[in-house]
Design a protein that fits this description.
11 strands
Length: 715
C-alpha cells in the first residue's frame, strides 16, 4: 500500500506539476516563503548549477527546480513562487498552494526573514495547516545581528513543533544543518508535531461540521481540516482538484462534493458571510504568529532600522523621489553608453574578422557568389551586427539593473510610481516590468507575470514596448549624438545621456496615457491593490549578480534575438540583391513608402528600415546605411561623423532626426518580443493589439510633430 501511494505521488508530480524526478526514491522538497526572504539564495546555494526553470502547467508562473545529494539520497528541490499567503488570490499563490497540497512533497521548507520573523510566521502557520512535513529556515541571521535582533531558534522550534534551522545562505552558513533536518524529516527519522491554529468558536463549529464529511469523501492522507476551511471560504476548485488527484471519482461523487459545498455555504451563511469568515481565519493566524514572535524574537535596539528609514525618507519622498530616480536612470544609461562603445567595437572587430575567414573559405572551396552573399553577407553579417551591438549594452545594463535590485532600490521605484499607475487604472508593479523593458522588452513582458490581475497584466504586456529596449538604444544614441548633442564638444556624451533620459520620460508618460486609454476601453476595470514590501537595503553580492544577470537574462534574451535575426539577414540580402528591371526590390519598396513616410517626417528608406528591422531593432541604422550606399549588404561606417555626412547628404534635417527618434520610441515591438507576447497571452487578439498600439501611437505623434513644424515654417 505504501509503495502504491509513493508511485501515485511520483505520477502526480511528473504528470500534473511537471517536476522531473529521476527515481521513485528521490525526495521531493518544496521551498516556500515570502518575497525578499533570501529564498532564491537558499535554492541557489543548495543546488548550485544543477537546476533548470520552466512554467507551471496552465499558468504563467515560473518555477525553478534543482537537485542535490545528501547521505546518498537525491533531493529534488522545487523553488515555489514567493507569496505572502496561500489563500490563492493570485496565480503565484495558487501555484504554491497546489504544489504543497497536490504533489505532497516529502518536506516543505519555509524560508523566513529573521529581521521580520513575526510577519513571516503567518506563512509558516498556513503551510503547517496543509502538511506536517515542515522545516523552517530562518534566513538572514547576519542582517538580524547587524540590527541587534536575536531569535531564540530552540524556543521557536518548540513552539512551532517542527525543526527550525538558522542560516545565512549568502555565506553558506547553516546549510549543512538545513540539509540534515530536511533528510531527517523526509526519512521519517524525526517526527514533527506542528502547532494547531485554534480559531474562534463559530469558525471551529463550522470546521467540525464539514471536516467529517470531507474525510468520508477523500483520501485519508488529505489535509481535511485545511480543506474544510477552503470549502467554507468558497474555494471549491481547490477542493475538487485535490479530490480528483487522489482518487478517480465518478460523476456521482463529484455531484456529492458540489452538494457538500452548497450545504457548507448554507451553514456558514446563518452565522457570517464569507468575507467575515476569512477575516476571522486570517485574524487568528496573525494573532498566533504575533504571540510566537513575542516569545522568540528580541529587539536589543529599537532603532535597528533607523538608517533604512532615513534613506527611504529621501528616496521615496514626494520632493526627491522622482528626481533621484531620474538621476539614477541617467547614470545607468551614461555608464551603459560609455562602456558599450568600447566593448561593441572590440566584439565587432572579432566577429567581422571571422567573416573574413568565412569569405576566404568560400573562395578556397569555390562556392558560388550567391551562396556566399546569402550565408555570409546576409545571415552571418546580420547576426554579427546584432550580437556586437546588442550584447555589450545588455552585459552592462543587466548587471547594473540587478545590482539595484539586490540593493533593494527597485521596490522604491515601484513605490514612487505607484500613484501614477493607479491614476492610469494600472498596477503599481507595472513600474518594475517597465524597468525590465529598458534592458529588453521581451524580458519585460515575461516579468509581467508578477502582476496578479489578468486585466492589469495584459495592460502591462501591451504597453511594455513604449519604453525603449537596448536594441533601440543604438539608434537613439547615434541620432541624439548627431542631431542634439553634435555641437556640445567634450560634453557630448553627457548631453546625449540627458536627451536619452528625456526620451525615457516621454516613453513613461506615453505608457501611462495608453494604459489609461486601455483601462477605459477594451480592458475596463479599477486598479487592484497590492502589498508592496520595501525590503531592507543590502550589500549586493557582485559575483552572483554578474552570473545571474549574464546567464539568466543577457544570454537568454540574446539567444532569442539571434534566432529571429538569422532569417531576417537572409530576407534583407535577397531584397537588396534581386533586381526588377534596373532597380532592386529594396528601392522599389522604399519608393512605394515615400509619400506616406514624408507626412511622418521620414523618408521611404527610413520607414522600410523599421519594417525590415522587425526581427531585431539593432539593424535599423545598418539597413538605412546599406540602402543609401546601395551596397547590397549591411555595412558599418567608421565614425559618427561619417554617419552624419551620409544622412545629411540624403536630405536629413533636425526634424528628420527627431521624428526618427520618436518613431524609434513608438513603433511595433521586435519579433522576439512579439513571440514572447504571444507565448505569454496565448492570444492572437492581444498580440495584434500589442503590435498596433505603439505603431499607431508613433504614426500619430510623428505626423503631428512633422506637420506642426512645417506649418509654423520652422523648416
Amino acid at each position: 500500500m505504501r509503495l502504491a501511494k509513493q508511485a501515485n505521488r511520483k505520477k502526480s508530480i511528473n504528470n500534473i506539476l511537471e517536476v522531473q524526478v529521476d527515481s521513485p526514491d528521490d525526495y521531493i522538497i518544496a521551498l516556500a516563503g515570502n518575497p525578499n526572504t533570501g529564498k532564491s539564495t537558499v535554492f541557489n546555494s543548495l543546488t548550485g548549477l544543477n537546476q533548470h526553470t520552466g512554467n507551471w502547467p496552465g499558468k504563467t508562473v515560473t518555477n525553478a527546480q534543482g537537485k542535490y545529494v545528501y547521505r546518498g539520497k537525491q533531493h529534488i528541490l522545487v523553488d515555489l513562487p514567493g507569496t505572502y499567503s496561500l489563500m490563492a488570490n493570485s496565480a503565484d499563490e495558487e501555484a504554491a498552494r497546489d504544489f504543497i497540497c497536490l504533489a505532497r512533497p516529502h518536506v516543505t521548507v519555509v524560508v523566513a526573514d529573521a529581521t521580520c520573523l513575526e510577519r513571516n510566521l503567518n506563512m509558516v502557520l498556513q503551510v503547517m495547516e496543509i502538511t506536517d512535513q515542515v522545516v523552517v529556515c530562518v534566513n538572514l541571521l547576519d542582517e538580524a545581528r547587524r540590527k541587534n535582533i536575536e531569535v531564540d531558534l530552540l524556543k521557536l522550534a518548540s513552539l512551532l513543533g517542527v525543526p527550525v534551522i538558522g542560516t545565512n545562505a549568502r555565506e553558506g552558513i547553516g546549510l549543512h544543518e538545513l540539509k540534515e533536518a530536511v533528510y531527517r524529516v523526509a526519512s521519517s527519522s524525526e517526527k514533527t508535531r506542528p502547532v494547531k491554529v485554534v480559531y474562534d468558536r463559530e469558525v471551529e463549529n463550522a470546521i467540525n461540521w464539514v471536516e467529517p464529511l470531507i474525510k468520508d469523501s477523500i483520501d485519508d492522507e488529505a489535509p481535511s481540516r485545511w480543506l474544510a476551511l477552503r470549502l467554507l471560504e468558497g474555494d471549491n476548485l481547490a477542493f475538487l482538484a485535490h479530490n480528483n488527484l487522489l482518487r478517480n471519482d465518478s460523476a456521482g461523487k463529484t455531484g456529492d462534493l458540489a452538494a457538500l459545498a452548497g450545504e457548507s455555504a448554507a451553514v456558514l451563511s446563518r452565522q457570517m458571510d464569507k468575507d467575515e469568515f476569512r477575516e476571522r481565519v486570517v485574524g487568528s493566524l496573525v494573532k498566533l504568529a504575533e504571540s510566537i514572535g513575542e516569545k522568540t524574537v528580541y529587539y536589543r535596539n529599537e532603532q535597528y532600522n533607523r538608517w533604512d528609514h532615513k534613506i527611504d525618507n529621501i528616496v521615496t519622498s514626494r520632493i526627491w523621489g522622482i528626481p533621484i530616480m531620474l538621476a539614477m536612470l541617467g547614470l545607468v544609461f551614461w555608464l551603459t553608453i560609455q562602456g558599450a562603445n568600447y566593448f561593441s567595437e572590440a566584439l565587432a572587430t572579432g566577429l567581422f574578422w571571422i567573416e573574413a575567414r568565412l569569405t576566404n573559405f568560400f573562395l578556397w572551396a569555390g562556392g558560388p557568389d550567391w551562396l556566399h552573399g546569402a550565408l555570409v553577407l546576409g545571415v552571418y553579417r546580420t547576426l554579427a551586427w546584432v550580437v556586437s551591438v546588442m550584447l555589450p549594452p545588455m552585459a552592462i545594463f543587466f548587471p547594473l539593473f540587478t545590482l539595484l535590485e539586490d540593493f533593494g532600490y527597485l521596490p522604491r521605484i515601484a513605490f514612487n510610481l505607484d500613484n501614477f499607475f493607479k491614476k492610469a487604472c494600472a498596477h503599481g508593479k507595472q513600474a518594475l516590468t517597465m524597468c525590465m523593458g529598458f534592458g529588453c522588452n521581451a524580458a519585460g513582458v515575461v516579468a509581467c507575470r508578477i502582476i496578479d490581475s489578468p486585466r492589469e497584466r495584459l495592460i502591462a504586456t501591451i504597453t511594455n514596448s513604449f519604453v525603449p529596449c537596448n536594441g533601440r538604444f543604438p539608434t537613439l544614441i547615434a541620432l541624439a549624438m548627431i542631431f542634439i548633442a553634435g555641437s556640445a564638444g567634450p560634453y557630448q556624451s553627457i548631453l546625449a545621456s540627458l536627451a536619452i533620459t528625456g526620451v525615457i520620460v516621454l516613453g513613461v508618460g506615453i505608457t501611462l496615457s495608453v494604459s489609461k486609454i486601455l483601462s477605459q476601453t477594451v480592458l475596463k476595470g479599477l486598479p487592484s491593490s497590492f502589498t508592496l514590501e520595501l525590503p531592507p537595503y543590502r550589500k549586493p553580492l557582485v559575483g552572483r549578480v554578474l552570473v545571474r544577470s549574464i546567464f539568466d537574462r543577457t544570454l537568454f534574451v540574446l539567444a532569442r534575438a539571434v534566432m529571429v535575426a538569422a532569417p531576417a539577414g537572409l530576407v534583407i540580402w535577397i531584397l537588396a540583391n534581386v533586381q526588377v528591371g534596373n532597380t532592386n526590390i529594396l528601392q522599389l519598396c522604399a519608393q512605394f513608402l515615400e509619400p506616406f513616410a514624408y507626412h511622418l517626417g521620414l523618408d521611404g528608406y527610413i520607414l522600410l528600415a523599421f519594417i525590415l528591422g522587425f526581427p531585431a531593432n539593432e539593424i535599423v541604422i545598418p539597413i538605412i546605411i546599406m540602402s543609401y550606399m546601395a551596397t547590397g549588404s549591411l555595412v558599418e561606417l567608421e565614425s559618427l561623423g561619417d554617419l552624419r555626412d551620409l544622412l545629411v547628404s540624403h536630405g536629413w534635417t533636425w526634424l528628420t532626426g527627431v521624428c526618427t527618434m520618436l518613431f524609434c520610441l513608438n513603433h511595433f515591438p521586435c519579433g522576439t518580443t512579439m513571440l514572447t507576447i504571444f507565448k505569454e497571452t496565448q492570444s492572437r487578439k492581444w498580440t495584434l493589439l500589442a503590435f498596433l498600439a505603439p505603431t499607431l501611437t508613433g504614426i500619430f505623434i510623428c505626423f503631428v510633430v512633422a506637420q506642426t513644424v512645417r506649418f509654423l515654417g520652422l523648416m
